[in-house]
Amino acid sequence: MILNEDKALKVAEFLLQIKAVKLKPNSPFTWASGIKSPIYCDNRITLSFPQIRTFIRQEYTETILESFGKPEVIAGVATGGIAMGALVAQELGLPFIYVRPEPKKHGMGNQIEGFFEEGQRVVVIEDLISTGGSSLKAVEALRKQKLDVKGLIATFTYGFDKAHQNFTNAECPYVTLTSYDYLIKKALEENYINEKEWKSLQEWKNNPEKWK
After folding, report:
1. Which of 9, 59, 206, 209 maximizes the CB count within 10 A of its CB?
2. pLDDT for 156-194, tens place per residue?
3. Domain ranges (residues) in the chain
4. Do 46 and 17 meet the contact criterion of CB atoms below 8 Å apart?
5. Class of 5-210 per CATH?
6. CB contact at 8 A, 56 and 25
């Protein structure tokens, strides 16, 4: 879900400007799953640009309050959600914790790092959503520790139907600052891509497994 179209386009513009997103429909990337992808997204690059980092932090903060109310804890998903999660927690004056992909195999064996208490309201911070699998593993880990997950927020989503279905099945509301659709719209407007490339990018979104 996107709350504000103008802001979604602004975030998309920033991602394109700093090359946090690369669009290469004629020379696609290969994901670990083997899927050919015309897009590569690394939102961690936003952390290196203070003005953009500040804008995105403020958008996270406003969107959290509007969508979920003020939580008691912010939880970042390792690793992409840790830095922005800590910045958002600071902005809101809240405790911060983060969730590993799996429990540590040494020491205390923690999967969740930081101090928290059962029943606390938590909002989860992620950098991007593809199928939602890794994000929802973090949600599950928090729920196992009896935290009250109010929802999840990410910078970017590919907008796959599978992700929406996975979040629906997990009964976890989610919202993102921008999306693939807004990104390629802005890319076309700003001449990062041409009309033919836009059509190819749209075809990938509709059927990534059979694209190319």
Report:
1. 59
2. 999 999 999 999 999 999 999 999 999 999 999 999 999
3. 5-210
4. no
5. alpha beta
6. no
